[in-house]
Specification:
The complex is a heterodimer of chains A (180) and B (136). Chain A has 180 residues and is α/β, with parallel strands linked by helices. Chain A has 5 helices and 7 strands; from the N terminus they run αβββαβαβαββα. Chain B has 2 domains: 79 residues, Helicase, Ruva Protein, domain 3 (Orthogonal Bundle), CATH 1.10.8.640; 34 residues. Helix content of chain B is 56%, strand content 0%. The chains are: A alpha/beta (180), B mainly alpha (136).
Chain lengths: 180, 136
């Protein structure tokens, strides 16, 4: 009899326990927000066989796969992208370390790109246009800025989402070294 | 006076630029002339997830990349590609996350089996209750 009462009491407290667990889960997610960035599933796979739109009318389209036979960094950027401004000096730092950087200007106009490069420097060995985000979608990227490390055989090795910040330079250099 | 200044400040404030200066892609907000193809494209667009808004399909989203994805879907449908192939092409890039339609693979078996399991439990509960009712 007393045992039955105890069980009934326990059941009475169950909603409170559930509520407490819910609160704990909410507090945990507030303290450690989930990472909402969408990672490309092409890492470890070859670059898609696409051509980047030439920036100047009549210019040559850049074939993404054969842009270079060295390991390279592909950088999605845009003149309208504010974090890209913050990233610019770090791309220049990488370029000074002999990193071959291919720029892909997303949804941009040639005159705006020229003004952006004049103001923030040009670390790219070549720049292709991507007026309708088709290159971006083909690489599984979802925003600007984003960067990919590609090895000499055209295999994607690493994806960096968001602007490259001070601490990321060593990570990217290490990934490029691995891609050699 | 202070309020007027505030309103003036708002009127002349430069908006923060998160969007490009280019117009939407050609097929982003335009229907395909062939109604069957457009229906096929719309059905697919409603099942593809917008990459930056996450809670919306690309059919519902105003984000630029969603417009560019609609352009891609309509172009490929118009070129005769099958909706499932386009979906597979996107999943190859973004993972099964990008599609609202759950695939039947080892990762989703619980999703497919759960309704059957609950139906079985419900059936068992109903059956035992009916049996007890008969005994009374």
């Amino acid at each position: 009899m007393a045992e039955g009462l105890f069980v009934r009491r326990l059941i009475l407290f169950a909603p409170l326990v559930v509520f407490g667990l819910l609160l704990a889960a909410l507090a945990w997610r507030l303290a450690a927000p989930s990472d909402a960035s969408v990672r490309s599933t092409l890492v470890g796979k070859p670059l898609p066989d696409i051509r980047l739109t030439p920036l100047a009318p009549g210019g040559a389209a850049i074939p993404l796969r054969s842009a270079t036979d060295k390991p390279m960094l592909i950088n999605f950027f845009a003149s309208w992208c504010v974090p890209c401004v913050a990233e610019a000096p770090l791309l220049e730092e990488l370029q000074r370390k002999d990193v071959a950087i291919l720029g892909i200007a997303v949804r941009d106009r040639p005159e705006d790109i020229a003004a952006f490069l004049q103001r923030h420097g040009n670390p790219f060995f070549a720049i292709g246009g991507d007026p309708e985000s088709q290159a971006q979608i083909a690489l599984g990227s979802s925003g600007v800025p984003e960067s990919y490390v590609v090895d000499g055989r055209g295999i994607i090795r690493y994806q960096h989402i968001g602007p490259i910040e001070g601490g990321d330079v060593t990570v990217i250099m290490a990934e490029l070294e691995k891609a050699r | 006076m202070k309020r007027l200044l505030l309103i003036l400040a708002l009127a002349f404030a430069a908006p923060s630029l998160a969007d490009s200066n280019l117009p939407p892609a050609y097929w982003a907000n335009r229907q395909l002339p062939d109604a069957t193809q457009e229906a096929r494209a719309t059905a697919l667009m409603e099942e593809l997830r917008c990459l930056v808004c996450q809670g919306q399909s690309i059919a519902d989203s105003d984000a630029e990349i969603a417009g560019d994805m609609r352009d891609l879907v309509r172009r490929r449908i118009a070129a005769g590609e099958r909706p499932d192939d386009i979906r597979a092409w996107l999943i190859e890039r973004y993972g099964s996350w990008v599609s609202y339609k759950p695939a039947a693979n080892p990762g989703t078996w619980a999703l497919w089996l759960a309704p059957l399991l609950f139906l079985a439990i419900g059936g068992w509960m109903a059956a035992s209750r009916i049996k007890r009712g008969g005994e009374d």
